[in-house]
Amino acid sequence: MRFDRIAIVGVGLIGGSFAAAAKRLPQPPYVLGIDVDPEGLAYARSQGWIDDTATPDEAFDRGWLSPGDAVADLVVLATPATITQEWLRRL
Questions:
Q1: Environment class of residue 55 by beta-carbon count within 10 Å: exposed (0-12), middle (13-18) or buried (19+)?
Q2: In what order do the strands lie in the sheet with 52-54?
Q3: Element (H or E) spanning 8, and its range?
Q4: What are phi and psi of 84, to 5 degrees?
Q5: Other CB atoms closer than 10 Å to residue 65's CB: what's the count?
Q6: Quick one: CA dihedral 38, 55, 5, 19, positive or negative?
Q7: Calpha distance 3→79 (Å, rounded)
Q8: Smaller CB count within 10 Å for the chain: N or C?
Q9: Global confidence as pTM
Q10: Per-residue CA distances from 10 to 1, 46, 68, 83, 90 (Å)
């Protein structure tokens, strides 16, 4: 299965690695990096791992994560375990 648009929540070690691997595919997807850390987002973007950035609220506002009309074909949760449950509720 091919994913054209991926949203990665948390672009730290795991999320950043996932994004980097996705960008090495023969037909890389468009990757939105979602994080609360602007420095982490800027770094991931500077490395070419993500195409655009968003805070969690911006991602919902732009429709990337809205139930029913999600723009993302795949959402990867790469957040600390302590906030994963909160993200699952939100999604």
A1: middle
A2: 52-54, 30-34, 5-9, 74-77
A3: strand 5-9
A4: -60, -40
A5: 23
A6: positive
A7: 21
A8: N
A9: 0.90
A10: 23, 16, 22, 11, 15
